[in-house]
Amino acid sequence: MNNKNQNGKGDDTAKRTNRKNWDKGWDAYNKGNNRKQELNKQRKEGMKNRNSGDCNSGYRNSGYRNSGYRNSGYRNSGDCNSGYWNSGDCNSGDWNSGNWNSGDCNSGYWNSGDRNSGDWNSGDCNSGNWNSGDCNSGYLNSDEPTVRVFNKDSGLLRSEIELPDFFSFGLTIWIKSREMTAKEQKDNKFHAVTGGFLKTRDYKEAFVASWKKATEDDKKKLFALPNFDAKIFKEISGIDVNEKKPEFTDDLPKDSVTMGDEVVNLRILAQNLYQELMGTPDSKWSLYTQRMKDAGMMQ
Q1: 3 state DSSP class of 164
Q2: CB pairs under 8 A, 24+ apart, for 246-252?
Q3: Domain for residue 160, yes or no?
Q4: What's the whole-model pTM score?
Q5: Is residue 55, in this structure, part of any structural domain at all?
Q6: Which residue range(s) make up the domain with 269?
Q7: Of 179, 180, 205, 244, which cross-links 201 as Cys (Cβ 3.0–4.6 Å)?
Q8: Rounded Cα distance, 104 and 88, in Å
Q9: Which of 11-25, 61-75, 185-199 has the highest mean pLDDT?
Q10: Same domain, 231 and 182
Q11: Domain tally for the chain?
């Protein structure tokens, strides 16, 4: 009996020992296998990154600060760029959001020119395609067209037209906390942390606000535009220019009739100026002729 019990205990001890040894072996195998997998992962990751440049979060970049892949240029979020600051792909130019451009600042594709939203342009500022000229919205043009203003052809190139500064405006504006209304503060609960909020305005709201801030001299540029049409302008901008037109002053005293020869000479000068302007399109100079009529300097 005693021998049997002792043999039974001996068998149990041997089994437990074998089990421990097996567990240790299995743990060692797993650790070795995990280490192997980790090394393989690191090796693959290293092969995949292959950045020779600095500060790249993307892969296979020889340039710097790229978040995209395979860039030899700098600061690209797109892929395969040799130029700089591209969000598009395969650009040798700079600042392109489109693809396959050798020019700069293109949102379109395959442009060798600059600032094109169209495709395959060798010229600049084209919204159409296949243009070697500039500022074309159509196809296959080699020259620069005159600009339509207020639904009519102006007979002028873009560079020959002076636009008011208030035509440039943003659709978003930063409102400081102290300038916010009660409703805006309620709708933007974290304004105290950020110091304010970014307000988005619709197109006409922003246009009207820009008009209200414009100087009188800048507003005069609007009325001097070729083919000016107040109705069309209001339809586009929401601005009713007839509500308050800028005041034009001729710097003539009320008692100018007492100025004698000086006033006569001024009238003659104005008449000569009018004769010179008659050789140009009436639409462009209608504002100035009206001013002279209002001042009584011409019939």
Answers
A1: coil
A2: 246/216, 246/219, 246/220, 247/216, 248/220, 248/291, 248/294, 250/291, 250/295, 250/297, 252/295
A3: no
A4: 0.51
A5: no
A6: 256-294
A7: 205
A8: 11
A9: 185-199
A10: yes
A11: 3
